[in-house]
Design brief:
It is a multi-pass membrane protein. By secondary structure, this protein is α+β, with helices and mostly antiparallel strands. The chain has eleven helices and twelve strands. It is rod-shaped and about 160 Å long.
Length: 479
């Protein structure tokens, strides 16, 4: 049975829907306010005019006319003439609901609902809206009683047609609704454009991410033409892909380099092993030479493997430190002693300047690994007769080590990447390109900093800064 895959709506749809809903609700509220305003203006206004005139007419009639059941038939025509309102029909109604007289000259045959008559008060006329029984047109009527000694003799009833008002009201409401729909339409189009502007970089980012997941590290998206954070996101993504591309290149370079570095000592070990096995073991000169080469190549292999293991443990956060308190001058002397023969062979001098009573709390073996790597590089890139200076000073709560050589130095491009894992400025250089990267990580695990200053043909200065509290314990406690 085939599974039906439901198409999932995108963020552009939801952004547009959200904007349209918000704008529609705002327009509906606006239309409601307009409806209330127009209703008040047209209908309430008419009601107030009729009610006000009806009350004034009744009060004036009760003050100026002597009312009695006997003279009603004589004064009714006069009342019609005196108290009618232009644009309305005035009727005089009996308490039973019969229409006694009308300003139109015609006496309608229908009667007025007695309940409305009874509910009316002199100061509170009753308003009624409905259809005229004679013409079926929509009308508004106001009824107010005319009293004599608390006896209701007759009622004034004013009637006005609502047909014209209804037409104007509907026209105004139609115009208002048309404007509201136009606003929703324009807002929807603007929302679509706005949503497109937001979602376009996200769509490009999604496509580029899919390419990136397939190993296409050159996947880039446009930048510099999007809104605020979206342009920042595009820039960050491009920087990430560029970084991944660089790492991929370095990884490939590393694999190639490590393969070459491993092949060379293994070839030497294999070759000399075969030579010794098939050769004359009594030839001690050849045997010693072969064993010496095998030992050196094995050391090279061990160093490469250790670097790879250190790099792996640092990245997996399983790298541990075993700090102890040790004497700095003694430590530096032990490190330099390992390079004594090499320095004599190359004709290079190493000098050390440090306070005699400085001790620090650190992992001695790891710090030795750092200094050996840095000094070995200084010797490697120095010429015979040049000087390497090692200084250790205490400044502002920190102990500063400086290893300065007069060697060939580095270009700015190489200097920027020299502590990057697997980076080798020269592809012909032996090693894995992990030495300085591991040194930097070890120093930072000691809460310190490793900084390199170098100029081409003017030497290099490696500065190692560690926190120091001025006591024999030196460094603060490490985690």
């Amino acid at each position: 049975m085939e599974k039906m895959t439901k198409h999932k709506k995108g963020i552009r749809y939801y952004l547009m829907l959200q904007h349209v809903i918000v704008i529609s609700v705002a327009v509906l509220l606006f239309e409601f306010v307009v409806f209330i305003g127009l209703y008040q203006y047209y209908y309430r206004n008419t009601e107030e005019i009729l009610s006000s005139h009806a009350k004034n007419a009744v009060h004036f009639a009760m003050r100026s006319t002597e009312l009695s059941p006997f003279n009603l038939q004589y004064i009714i025509p006069e009342m019609i003439n005196d108290y009618q309102l232009k644009g309305t029909e005035m009727q005089i109604v009996s308490p039973s609901g019969n229409i006694l007289a009308s300003s139109s000259g015609f006496s309608p045959k229908y009667t007025v609902d007695r309940r409305l008559l009874q509910e009316s008060e002199v100061n509170q006329p009753v308003v009624w809206k409905g259809h005229n029984e004679g013409t079926e047109e929509r009308v508004m009527a106001v009824v107010v009683p005319l009293e004599n000694e608390e006896e209701r003799l007759i009622y004034f009833r004013y009637i006005t047609s609502l047909e014209r008002i209804d037409k104007v009201f509907k026209k105004q409401m139609s115009l208002s609704l048309g404007i509201g729909l136009a606003i929703i339409l324009v807002a929807s189009l603007l929302s679509l454009a706005f949503a497109k502007q937001i979602t376009t970089p996200l769509i490009q980012l999604t496509k580029a991410s899919k390419r990136l997941s397939k190993g296409e590290y050159d996947a880039m998206i446009s930048q510099g033409k999007y809104l605020g954070e979206l342009d920042t996101l595009a820039k960050s993504f491009n920087e990430m892909t560029h970084g991944l591309l660089q790492h991929e290149k370095m990884k490939n370079q590393f694999i190639s380099s490590v393969s070459h570095e491993l092949r060379t000592p293994l070839t030497s070990i294999k070759g000399w092993s075969d030579t010794l096995l098939t050769g004359d073991l009594k030839n001690w000169k050849e045997v010693r030479q072969g064993l010496h080469i095998i030992s050196e190549e094995a050391s090279r292999l061990t160093e490469m493997v250790e670097n790879l293991l250190d790099f792996s443990s640092i990245n997996n956060q399983s790298f541990t430190l075993n700090p102890t308190t040790f004497h700095v001058p003694t430590f530096l002397s032990d490190v330099i002693l390992q390079f004594e023969k090499l320095c004599k062979k190359k004709g290079i001098e190493i000098t050390v300047q440090t306070s005699p009573d400085v001790s620090i709390y650190a992992d001695r073996n790891r710090m030795k690994q750092v200094f050996i790597n840095v000094i070995d590089n200084a010797i490697k890139y120095s010429q015979p007769g040049e000087l390497i200076e090692i200084n250790a000073t205490v400044q502002c709560g920190r102990i500063i080590f400086s290893i300065k050589d007069e060697g060939q130095g580095m270009t700015e491009e190489v200097l920027e990447q020299v502590t990057t894992p697997f980076y080798k400025g020269n592809s012909n250089t032996s090693g894995t390109g992990l030495g300085l990267s591991i040194c930097k990580d070890i120093v930072e695990l000691h809460h310190g900093e490793l900084h390199i200053e170098s100029k081409l043909d003017k030497g290099t200065n490696v500065i190692i800064s560690l926190p120091y509290d001025g006591t024999q314990d030196g460094l603060q406690s490490l985690p």
